[in-house]
Specification:
62 residues, elongated, mainly alpha, single chain
Length: 62
């Protein structure tokens, strides 16, 4: 599990980077970059869903 945790940490870092870059490019009105980073955000979000979120323990588990 530690390897998956390290992978998820890097993916989460990229996720947060994209959340900061997209508004920056929107402010600069560079729409091509906005769409590219939005696609990266979507890919990273789906990846985090399957590698991290689905593997969280259920609330019923101690």
């Amino acid at each position: 599990m530690p390897r998956i945790d390290m992978l998820n940490a890097m993916i989460a870092s990229l996720f947060q980077l994209t959340l900061g870059i997209i508004p920056f490019y929107m402010f600069l009105r560079q729409w091509d970059q906005v769409w590219i980073w939005s696609a990266i955000l979507l890919i990273v979000t789906v990846t985090l869903y399957f590698t991290w979120y689905k593997n969280l323990p259920s609330p019923d588990e101690p």
